Amino acid sequence: MLARLTLGQRDRLGHLLFVVPAYLYILLFFGYPLAKNVWMSFVDFRTATFVTGEAPWVGLQNYREVLDLSVLPTATINTLLITAVTVVAQLVIGLALASFFTRSFPGSRMLASVIPLPWLLPLVTTAAIWQWLLRDDGPLVRLFAASGSPLADPDLALVVLIGVNIWLGVPFYVIILTAALQNVPVDQLEAAELDGAGPWRRFVHVTLPSIRPQLAVSTTLTIIYTLKILELPLILTGGGPANSTQTLGTVAYNLSFEKFEFGQGAAVGNLLMLVTLVFALFYVIQATRGEHR
């Protein structure tokens, strides 16, 4: 049968054999859980459902109950605030460090190899380390002679959470932007310098336009990743104290795995998914544009 196929048909068949497993993987591990989560948000899914299989249809009731939660406004504001501050800070710090590492100096290679470590470590491990550093008798608390852990202070816990999250994500920007800066056309920089452009004007008019695609993609990915932040606040503060570090991710987790209101937890997850889909669509557009250049 294969012998009867033309060369073009064989090529298409070969491509199909490589593509089908990828699509099956996406359908099995992303499509099915997504469809299941959407379904759960419209039914009364509880622990008994795992035994009886019964989940009565409740329509939009889970969404109405979620929108009435007293913690939801705080969690929404925290999620947006963490995302906004994190993205801006990581971008500025990452771009500054990337510009720094494009210059060769003694020890630059060693520093460049150390920078990615926070990003490469498992998030649970990193969060546990910071929790130990910032506990009441932790090294940082003793170093600054603080009266107690900032994680227990409602006014400081969110600030600390944002700071740790910034620290975690900066290496991602450094890696992406260092590679991008190394590909900035040298002849354009030299031409701008000959025209009398100073360092700032060269950066604004030559460097930034050259790395704009990398900036757009890395920023979009950071927004998507930060919007669904869960592990860090869950381990560092558990959403406390006094709900001061609750995010949409922790609310969904608490509803599902502490109160066992799986339908409401799924509803929060779906609301968050709708927001991230907007940025995911932007990412796909940027990636597609990059392929056609």
UniProtKB/TrEMBL annotation:
Record-annotated ABC transmembrane type-1 domain positions: 76-283
GO BP: transmembrane transport
Transmembrane spans: 12-35, 77-98, 110-133, 156-181, 265-285
Keyword Transmembrane helix assigned: yes
Highest rank taxon of the organism: Bacteria
Localization per record: Cell membrane
GO cellular component, one term: plasma membrane
UniProt keyword DNA repair, yes or no: no
UniProt xrefs under SUPFAM superfamilies: MetI-like
Main location: membrane
Pfam families hit by this protein: BPD_transp_1
Annotated PROSITE patterns: ABC_TM1
Keywords, alphabetical: Cell membrane, Membrane, Transmembrane, Transmembrane helix, Transport
Topology versus the membrane: Multi-pass membrane protein
CDD domains: TM_PBP2 (cd06261)
Protein family according to the UniProt entry: Belongs to the binding-protein-dependent transport system permease family.
UniProt-recorded name of the protein: Sugar ABC transporter permease
Natural source organism: Nocardioides cavernaquae
